[in-house]
């Protein structure tokens, strides 16, 4: 299994001299040519030749070579993942390696949700991933048939989700109403045999959390399912700056084991919908199948009422496709692994000392204020290379410090979300209290601005329709269609066949007044949102 | 797959009246009979009949029915795991469900190590668990041969460890000395097809972290391997209160892919050794096999130097077997999910209000001081049941608050590690600053005391030997033998065959002076430690 990678002698020369600066502007806006040069210096012959979407694309070698988003959204997406070093392809088809920077985004998601899950009364635990084969779930399964060198008598399934083993154990653990509610969560890997894969969005194996709860009443289970979709919604808006639309899935789109499936639907930059999280009210479907019963306060045996809910590494793909632009990734400050990058700039050796001293001081000030700050003081890369690099990585704020800044006791700040001169501020004081306030304020502005931009984009791409013709038109334009719906499952499938759009959800937020189904003309209780999706 | 559990109507009556107290002593030391009664009230017929080690043993049903440690250490171990609700058996042979309380201990391990790993320059990431089959690692592997309903052309291995895929990716990512050192870690599940399993210690699947690093020089790799075994050693002593002995494995016991394996060896309560963590200097073994090369500063292509290091959920088993006693688990405060449990005690309804008010106040005080505190205010259990329950769970400190305590503005404190009256303190002031200092002081004392007890136990069970006869005698007594060793691999295997003891390590801490190998009489540079092990 030794690598068959084409290995050309590297073109790397040690430590190209730091980019000269005649004036501040020279390094402030490094030309595309400089960017391409730095990129070429780190790329191998093999990767330079590889097509953007090929499995062989090399991470981290493609800086400055990202396909424009408007030209080819899919190519842009995989280019950004490679160039920002978020993930790479594993050797087995459909598998993905999550690289440190991509994993750090997942850790930010975990850190937030883990706290919320505990606050709402859930405990983490861990179920084994190998379980007996359950019939009827086959097309997506990976099966272990050989263990310890021997053919197994009973094939084992590699976990695609855990409802079956959860209920097996719940049946052991739950006897009485005193054992309820039982509310647990696990962070785990799951495997589903997907034919068409896409990094983060759909891979053979992915990481997720799956919550599983058991309750004494239907009402409690319903409340829990709603509570968790609400946790996901808040996370999406407040942390990821993704204005998801929470709602209920149609019967056709509801999880097979659930009575109701709630979802958060996000609009990606290409206006496709991404199902970014789900929460199921499972009713008594699993408890009846597994005889998960409890003795109620009156001594009656009852089946428990259950929920399950999940968010996965797919959400990282959602962040990329919501905020990214032609320069690469753009991260909301609250989930950015690096919120501020400091790039020291100096030309002559005698400048280095004072610049680095100021850099260290600013770094400490920000770090102590709880800001996630990184200094890139490598002398192996030019400032221009670094500017591109951290823009590609979506770092919200860049601080530049050169000898003139040190003299003025100030720094230069650039916002990732506002390109060019408009995003730059000169002469921001180094005085700790002023600078900390300033940076914190800017981070909040960026956070709010990313959300607002995404809301505006979303709302300008949802069309209210009152006929099937209008729906077809909206979908053909790549938009989402929202309209009153009370038609049949057959009608829903017909829409899918004819337009490739599905009902993403009946949003919780519904317009007032009486409604007429745009398909049948019958009265409708709710509007539904239709869209093409990932 | 519906459960075939024997389900008898539960004997549970709602809310047995709170245990009466004629005087404080009545509830202070609940009799074994009370304990057994409470236990009986929660056990099902099925579990009461099940032998201790049987796979069918029911978690949480066996309170008060733990086999004495001295009578049968193995039965005690599995009893404690069930009664303290640490883990349960999964439906597939050899699999384990880690229950919330057991998982919380693992989370404490993760929280500490994760910070240390990052402080020492490592980033987390994630490699896929399905990889191509590598020959020669078969006996322990689980193989996926069917995916998506079809026989796979190439069998896939479910990750037993990740050196191969790590090097596959390192070869892609590393071109230049500028890409080094590359230092990563992943928290993951691994699967090994074990024939004889034991909860936490050896299961089909377990959780671990695996660190993988690549360096430009042998010296750097060696330094890294040593640094990480040092991190593990500090964690063991300072957090888990386990006085591991760090050292180097013999050639026979070194990981097949490593030049050197460092280990931490812990003495369990039955005096068997547990290998609790390892760190490997892999040299260039993997980099040569996978052609993982870098261009050095002089333009020369070199193979990288690597390390890998791991700690797993096995460590939880080590904590149980180091500190536990006949009353159950005993947790060092620093890694205890609950450091203090508060049990309210009241008899008459009109006492409840004042007691619960004081309980809430004490709880808040401790919580604000950063102490992990739990109140068990359930009216479904008696104080006596609760005392047993949290002793079984190894909670370091119990606080009792009754009406008389409220009147005196004081509480009663019991230490888990000091049984009976000696471990109790009456009249500890509720005044926040006094109480917080007092509890913090006690937690530190308990932490130090558990470590000291384990050190004393360890040291009184290591025998210095100067002949093979003395070694045989020490091993036959169940002890560890330490003696100068420079004999052959064949001699080492002979010792193993004849005594079942292996070289656990050449400890880093070596006695001064010249030494003679106890087996051959030849000069020896080092002493080795021999012991039977898990």
Could you characterize what this model shows?
- The structure is a homodimer of 534-residue chains.
- The first copy, chain A, has 534 residues and is of the alpha+beta class.
- The first copy, chain A, folds into three domains: 113-322, BirA Bifunctional Protein, domain 2, CATH 3.30.930.10; 333-446, Rossmann fold (3-Layer(aba) Sandwich), CATH 3.40.50.800; 462-531, 2-Layer Sandwich (Translation Initiation Factor IF3).
- Helices cover 34% and strands 25% of the residues of chain A.
- Chain A contains 15 helices and 25 strands.
- Chain A has helices spanning 24-28, 32-42, 45-49, 73-83, 100-119, 163-173, 218-238, 285-289, 314-323, 349-368, 383-392, 403-408, 432-459, 468-476, 489-499; strands at 87-89, 96-98, 123-124, 130-132, 142-147, 150-158, 182-191, 205-215, 245-248, 260-267, 273-283, 293-295, 301-303, 305-312, 340-344, 373-375, 397-401, 410-415, 424-429, 462-464, 480-484, 502-507, 515-516, 523-524, 527-531.
- In chain A, the strands form six sheets. The first copy, chain A, has an eleven-stranded mixed beta sheet, sandwiched between helices.
- The longest helix of chain A is centred in the C-terminal third of the chain and has 28 residues, at 432-459.
- Chain A is globular.
- Strand 5 of chain A pairs antiparallel with strand 5 of chain B, so a sheet runs across the interface.
- Chains A, B: Residues 48-68 are annotated as: Disordered.
- Chains A, B: This is proline--tRNA ligase.
- Chains A, B: Residues 93-332 form the Aminoacyl-transfer RNA synthetases class-II family profile domain.
